[in-house]
Protein backbone atom coordinates (compact mmCIF):
# COMPACT_ATOMS: atom_id res chain seq x y z
CA UNK A 1 0.00 0.00 0.00
CA UNK A 2 2.16 2.80 -1.28
CA UNK A 3 1.06 6.02 0.33
CA UNK A 4 4.65 7.22 0.77
CA UNK A 5 6.76 7.77 3.86
CA UNK A 6 5.27 11.17 4.65
CA UNK A 7 1.69 9.95 5.00
CA UNK A 8 2.84 6.80 6.82
CA UNK A 9 4.84 8.77 9.39
CA UNK A 10 2.06 11.33 9.86
CA UNK A 11 -0.44 8.51 10.44
CA UNK A 12 1.89 6.81 12.94
CA UNK A 13 2.40 10.13 14.76
CA UNK A 14 -1.37 10.69 14.95
CA UNK A 15 -1.91 7.22 16.41
CA UNK A 16 0.91 7.73 18.90
CA UNK A 17 -0.64 11.01 20.03
CA UNK A 18 -3.99 9.25 20.41
CA UNK A 19 -2.39 6.46 22.45
CA UNK A 20 -0.61 8.87 24.78
CA UNK A 21 -3.76 10.92 25.30
CA UNK A 22 -5.82 7.82 26.12
CA UNK A 23 -3.25 6.63 28.66
CA UNK A 24 -2.87 10.07 30.22
CA UNK A 25 -6.64 10.39 30.61
CA UNK A 26 -6.82 6.91 32.17
CA UNK A 27 -4.07 7.84 34.63
CA UNK A 28 -5.94 11.04 35.53
CA UNK A 29 -9.17 9.08 36.15
CA UNK A 30 -7.28 6.64 38.37
CA UNK A 31 -5.72 9.42 40.40
CA UNK A 32 -9.11 11.05 40.86
CA UNK A 33 -10.51 7.73 42.10
CA UNK A 34 -7.60 7.18 44.47
CA UNK A 35 -8.02 10.70 45.84
CA UNK A 36 -11.63 9.84 46.69
CA UNK A 37 -10.77 6.32 47.90
CA UNK A 38 -7.21 6.03 49.30
CA UNK A 39 -7.71 2.34 50.28
CA UNK A 40 -8.14 1.50 46.60
CA UNK A 41 -4.65 2.78 45.80
CA UNK A 42 -3.23 0.68 48.62
CA UNK A 43 -5.00 -2.41 47.28
CA UNK A 44 -3.73 -1.64 43.77
CA UNK A 45 -0.17 -1.42 45.04
CA UNK A 46 -0.58 -4.72 46.91
CA UNK A 47 -1.85 -6.32 43.69
CA UNK A 48 1.30 -5.18 41.91
CA UNK A 49 3.52 -6.47 44.70
CA UNK A 50 1.72 -9.82 44.73
CA UNK A 51 2.11 -10.18 40.96
CA UNK A 52 5.83 -9.45 41.25
CA UNK A 53 6.23 -12.15 43.92
CA UNK A 54 4.41 -14.64 41.69
CA UNK A 55 6.77 -13.85 38.82
CA UNK A 56 9.81 -14.35 41.05
CA UNK A 57 8.42 -17.68 42.28
CA UNK A 58 8.15 -18.89 38.70
CA UNK A 59 11.71 -17.80 37.92
CA UNK A 60 13.11 -19.58 40.99
CA UNK A 61 11.73 -22.85 39.66
CA UNK A 62 11.63 -25.94 41.88
CA UNK A 63 8.50 -26.97 43.73
CA UNK A 64 6.73 -23.60 43.98
CA UNK A 65 3.21 -24.97 43.59
CA UNK A 66 2.08 -24.29 47.13
CA UNK A 67 3.50 -20.77 47.11
CA UNK A 68 1.94 -20.05 43.71
CA UNK A 69 -1.48 -21.21 44.87
CA UNK A 70 -1.20 -19.01 47.94
CA UNK A 71 -0.20 -15.98 45.83
CA UNK A 72 -2.98 -16.73 43.36
CA UNK A 73 -5.60 -16.83 46.10
CA UNK A 74 -4.27 -13.59 47.54
CA UNK A 75 -4.35 -11.99 44.09
CA UNK A 76 -7.95 -13.01 43.56
CA UNK A 77 -8.92 -11.64 46.97
CA UNK A 78 -7.19 -8.33 46.26
CA UNK A 79 -8.86 -8.12 42.86
CA UNK A 80 -12.28 -8.74 44.44
CA UNK A 81 -11.63 -6.05 47.06
CA UNK A 82 -10.47 -3.58 44.39
CA UNK A 83 -13.61 -4.15 42.32
CA UNK A 84 -15.77 -3.79 45.43
CA UNK A 85 -14.24 -0.37 46.11
CA UNK A 86 -14.81 0.61 42.50
CA UNK A 87 -18.47 -0.36 42.69
CA UNK A 88 -18.88 1.72 45.85
CA UNK A 89 -17.91 4.74 43.74
CA UNK A 90 -20.08 3.76 40.79
CA UNK A 91 -17.18 2.54 38.67
CA UNK A 92 -16.17 -0.61 36.81
CA UNK A 93 -12.57 -1.79 36.18
CA UNK A 94 -12.84 -0.73 32.52
CA UNK A 95 -13.51 2.86 33.59
CA UNK A 96 -9.88 3.24 34.68
CA UNK A 97 -8.41 1.65 31.55
CA UNK A 98 -7.21 3.68 28.55
CA UNK A 99 -9.95 4.29 25.99
CA UNK A 100 -8.00 3.66 22.84
CA UNK A 101 -9.43 4.69 19.48
CA UNK A 102 -8.64 1.15 18.27
CA UNK A 103 -9.12 -1.65 20.78
CA UNK A 104 -7.38 -4.17 18.50
CA UNK A 105 -3.94 -2.56 18.41
CA UNK A 106 -4.33 -0.12 21.33
CA UNK A 107 -3.38 2.72 18.97
CA UNK A 108 0.02 1.25 18.13
CA UNK A 109 -0.92 0.58 14.51
CA UNK A 110 0.15 -3.08 14.59
CA UNK A 111 -1.30 -6.42 15.75
CA UNK A 112 1.06 -9.39 16.00
CA UNK A 113 3.56 -7.61 13.77
CA UNK A 114 1.01 -6.86 11.04
CA UNK A 115 -0.37 -3.44 10.19
CA UNK A 116 -3.73 -2.86 11.86
CA UNK A 117 -6.76 -1.90 9.81
CA UNK A 118 -6.95 1.40 11.73
CA UNK A 119 -3.53 2.48 10.43
CA UNK A 120 -4.51 1.47 6.91
CA UNK A 121 -7.74 3.45 7.19
CA UNK A 122 -5.95 6.49 8.61
CA UNK A 123 -3.42 6.50 5.77
CA UNK A 124 -6.25 6.15 3.26
CA UNK A 125 -8.11 9.10 4.80
CA UNK A 126 -4.98 11.24 4.81
CA UNK A 127 -4.24 10.35 1.20
CA UNK A 128 -7.81 11.25 0.20
CA UNK A 129 -7.62 14.56 2.08
CA UNK A 130 -4.23 15.37 0.57
CA UNK A 131 -5.47 14.60 -2.92
CA UNK A 132 -8.67 16.58 -2.38
CA UNK A 133 -6.63 19.65 -1.41
CA UNK A 134 -5.05 19.65 -4.88
CA UNK A 135 -8.00 18.46 -6.96
CA UNK A 136 -11.83 18.50 -6.87
CA UNK A 137 -11.99 14.82 -5.92
CA UNK A 138 -15.51 14.85 -4.45
CA UNK A 139 -16.91 16.60 -7.55
CA UNK A 140 -15.03 14.45 -10.04
CA UNK A 141 -16.80 11.11 -9.75
CA UNK A 142 -18.19 8.69 -12.30
CA UNK A 143 -21.72 9.73 -11.33
CA UNK A 144 -21.00 13.41 -12.01
CA UNK A 145 -19.48 12.71 -15.43
CA UNK A 146 -22.25 13.76 -17.82
CA UNK A 147 -22.45 12.31 -21.31
CA UNK A 148 -24.94 15.04 -22.27
CA UNK A 149 -22.05 17.25 -23.42
CA UNK A 150 -21.24 14.72 -26.16
CA UNK A 151 -24.83 14.00 -27.27
CA UNK A 152 -24.73 16.35 -30.29
CA UNK A 153 -22.10 14.17 -31.97
CA UNK A 154 -23.13 10.48 -32.21
CA UNK A 155 -19.54 9.33 -32.78
CA UNK A 156 -18.25 11.29 -29.78
CA UNK A 157 -21.12 10.02 -27.64
CA UNK A 158 -20.37 6.38 -28.47
CA UNK A 159 -16.67 6.91 -27.90
CA UNK A 160 -17.14 8.60 -24.53
CA UNK A 161 -19.72 6.02 -23.42
CA UNK A 162 -17.11 3.33 -24.06
CA UNK A 163 -14.39 5.31 -22.27
CA UNK A 164 -16.63 5.91 -19.23
CA UNK A 165 -17.47 2.20 -19.07
CA UNK A 166 -13.81 1.22 -19.41
CA UNK A 167 -12.75 3.63 -16.67
CA UNK A 168 -15.44 2.31 -14.31
CA UNK A 169 -14.24 -1.24 -14.92
CA UNK A 170 -10.61 -0.24 -14.47
CA UNK A 171 -11.37 1.35 -11.07
CA UNK A 172 -13.56 -1.57 -9.95
CA UNK A 173 -10.95 -4.16 -10.88
CA UNK A 174 -7.89 -2.14 -9.89
CA UNK A 175 -4.89 -4.02 -8.54
CA UNK A 176 -1.31 -2.88 -7.93
CA UNK A 177 -0.33 -4.63 -11.17
CA UNK A 178 -3.12 -3.17 -13.32
CA UNK A 179 -2.22 -1.83 -16.74
CA UNK A 180 -1.21 1.77 -17.38
CA UNK A 181 -3.49 4.13 -19.31
CA UNK A 182 -2.99 7.07 -21.67
CA UNK A 183 -5.82 9.60 -21.85
CA UNK A 184 -5.28 11.54 -25.06
CA UNK A 185 -7.33 14.37 -26.50
CA UNK A 186 -7.95 18.09 -26.63
CA UNK A 187 -8.52 20.30 -23.60
CA UNK A 188 -11.86 20.15 -21.80
CA UNK A 189 -13.00 16.67 -22.82
CA UNK A 190 -13.03 15.02 -19.37
CA UNK A 191 -9.54 13.51 -19.07
CA UNK A 192 -8.87 15.03 -15.65
CA UNK A 193 -12.42 14.31 -14.43
CA UNK A 194 -12.20 10.59 -15.20
CA UNK A 195 -8.65 10.23 -13.88
CA UNK A 196 -9.82 11.73 -10.58
CA UNK A 197 -12.90 9.50 -10.57
CA UNK A 198 -10.58 6.51 -10.85
CA UNK A 199 -8.39 7.97 -8.08
CA UNK A 200 -11.33 8.27 -5.69
CA UNK A 201 -12.44 4.68 -6.27
CA UNK A 202 -8.91 3.31 -5.97
CA UNK A 203 -8.28 5.16 -2.69
CA UNK A 204 -11.57 3.82 -1.35
CA UNK A 205 -10.29 0.31 -2.07
CA UNK A 206 -7.31 1.01 0.20
CA UNK A 207 -4.59 1.75 -2.35
CA UNK A 208 -2.18 4.66 -2.41
CA UNK A 209 -2.70 7.23 -5.16
CA UNK A 210 -0.49 10.16 -6.09
CA UNK A 211 -2.06 12.73 -8.40
CA UNK A 212 -0.57 15.87 -9.84
CA UNK A 213 -0.06 17.90 -12.98
CA UNK A 214 3.10 17.40 -14.97
CA UNK A 215 4.05 20.96 -14.03
CA UNK A 216 3.67 20.21 -10.29
CA UNK A 217 5.86 17.11 -10.55
CA UNK A 218 8.38 18.94 -12.75
CA UNK A 219 8.77 21.70 -10.15
CA UNK A 220 9.12 19.12 -7.34
CA UNK A 221 11.76 17.17 -9.27
CA UNK A 222 13.70 20.31 -10.15
CA UNK A 223 13.58 21.54 -6.53
CA UNK A 224 14.72 18.15 -5.29
CA UNK A 225 17.63 18.23 -7.70
CA UNK A 226 19.05 21.27 -5.93
CA UNK A 227 17.51 21.31 -2.45
CA UNK A 228 16.84 17.70 -1.41
CA UNK A 229 19.96 15.53 -1.67
CA UNK A 230 18.68 12.81 0.64
CA UNK A 231 16.91 10.09 -1.42
CA UNK A 232 15.44 8.55 1.73
CA UNK A 233 13.69 11.74 2.78
CA UNK A 234 9.92 11.37 3.36
CA UNK A 235 9.42 14.34 1.03
CA UNK A 236 11.63 12.94 -1.72
CA UNK A 237 9.58 13.46 -4.88
CA UNK A 238 11.09 10.61 -6.83
CA UNK A 239 10.47 8.16 -3.96
CA UNK A 240 6.81 9.15 -3.75
CA UNK A 241 6.36 8.91 -7.51
CA UNK A 242 7.79 5.40 -7.43
CA UNK A 243 6.16 4.14 -4.20
CA UNK A 244 2.47 4.87 -4.83
CA UNK A 245 0.18 2.12 -6.08
CA UNK A 246 -1.25 4.38 -8.77
CA UNK A 247 0.42 7.47 -10.21
CA UNK A 248 -1.72 9.97 -12.13
CA UNK A 249 0.30 12.36 -14.26
CA UNK A 250 -2.09 15.01 -15.55
CA UNK A 251 -1.56 17.42 -18.45
CA UNK A 252 1.72 15.95 -19.66
CA UNK A 253 3.30 18.43 -22.05
CA UNK A 254 2.18 21.59 -20.24
CA UNK A 255 5.19 21.65 -17.90
CA UNK A 256 8.14 23.95 -18.53
CA UNK A 257 10.54 21.78 -20.54
CA UNK A 258 14.10 21.01 -19.52
CA UNK A 259 16.52 18.22 -20.26
CA UNK A 260 16.55 17.19 -16.60
CA UNK A 261 12.75 17.09 -16.24
CA UNK A 262 12.36 15.10 -19.46
CA UNK A 263 14.94 12.56 -18.28
CA UNK A 264 13.35 12.39 -14.80
CA UNK A 265 9.85 11.81 -16.22
CA UNK A 266 11.16 9.07 -18.50
CA UNK A 267 12.86 7.45 -15.49
CA UNK A 268 9.57 7.48 -13.55
CA UNK A 269 7.52 6.11 -16.45
CA UNK A 270 10.06 3.44 -17.34
CA UNK A 271 10.78 2.37 -13.75
CA UNK A 272 7.08 1.99 -12.94
CA UNK A 273 6.61 -0.11 -16.06
CA UNK A 274 9.53 -2.33 -15.12
CA UNK A 275 8.17 -2.78 -11.59
CA UNK A 276 4.65 -3.50 -12.86
CA UNK A 277 3.09 -0.42 -11.23
CA UNK A 278 0.32 1.38 -13.12
CA UNK A 279 0.38 5.00 -14.23
CA UNK A 280 -2.35 7.10 -15.82
CA UNK A 281 -1.11 9.87 -18.10
CA UNK A 282 -3.33 12.51 -19.65
CA UNK A 283 -2.08 14.74 -22.43
CA UNK A 284 -3.16 16.99 -25.30
CA UNK A 285 -0.18 15.86 -27.36
CA UNK A 286 -0.21 13.34 -30.18
CA UNK A 287 2.21 10.41 -30.17
CA UNK A 288 4.39 12.29 -32.67
CA UNK A 289 4.41 15.37 -30.42
CA UNK A 290 5.32 13.19 -27.41
CA UNK A 291 8.24 11.78 -29.38
CA UNK A 292 9.41 15.23 -30.50
CA UNK A 293 9.12 16.75 -27.03
CA UNK A 294 10.53 13.95 -24.89
CA UNK A 295 12.24 11.29 -26.98
CA UNK A 296 11.52 8.41 -29.29
CA UNK A 297 12.34 6.10 -26.40
CA UNK A 298 9.76 7.79 -24.16
CA UNK A 299 7.01 7.69 -26.80
CA UNK A 300 7.85 4.07 -27.57
CA UNK A 301 7.31 3.02 -23.95
CA UNK A 302 3.93 4.77 -23.90
CA UNK A 303 2.84 3.37 -27.25
CA UNK A 304 3.90 -0.16 -26.41
CA UNK A 305 2.68 -0.58 -22.85
CA UNK A 306 -0.17 1.90 -22.20
CA UNK A 307 -3.82 1.30 -22.98
CA UNK A 308 -4.82 4.32 -25.08
CA UNK A 309 -8.14 6.15 -24.77
CA UNK A 310 -8.90 8.87 -27.33
CA UNK A 311 -11.17 11.60 -25.90
CA UNK A 312 -13.20 13.38 -28.59
CA UNK A 313 -16.02 15.91 -28.70
CA UNK A 314 -16.48 19.59 -28.00
CA UNK A 315 -14.82 21.38 -25.07
CA UNK A 316 -17.09 20.78 -22.05
CA UNK A 317 -15.88 23.92 -20.30
CA UNK A 318 -16.91 26.11 -23.22
CA UNK A 319 -20.32 24.40 -23.34
CA UNK A 320 -20.83 25.11 -19.63
CA UNK A 321 -19.94 28.75 -20.07
CA UNK A 322 -22.35 29.03 -22.98
CA UNK A 323 -25.15 27.47 -20.90
CA UNK A 324 -24.66 30.09 -18.17
CA UNK A 325 -25.16 33.00 -20.57
What does this structure look like?
The protein is α/β, with parallel strands linked by helices and 325 residues long. It has a domain at 135-324: P-loop containing nucleotide triphosphate hydrolases (Rossmann fold), CATH 3.40.50. Helix content is 59%, strand content 10%. It is built from 12 helices and 7 strands. It has helices spanning 5-36, 38-60, 65-88, 117-134, 154-172, 191-204, 214-227, 237-243, 259-274, 287-293, 296-305, 316-324; strands spanning 110-111, 114-115, 180-185, 209-213, 246-252, 279-283, 306-311. The protein has a 5-stranded parallel beta sheet, sandwiched between helices. Helix 1 (5-36) crosses helix 2 (38-60), helix 2 (38-60) runs antiparallel to helix 3 (65-88) and helix 5 packs parallel to helix 6. The longest helix is centred in the first third of the chain and has 32 residues, at 5-36. The radius of gyration is 29 Å and the shape is elongated. The two termini are 46 Å apart. Residues 228-235 have low confidence and may be disordered.
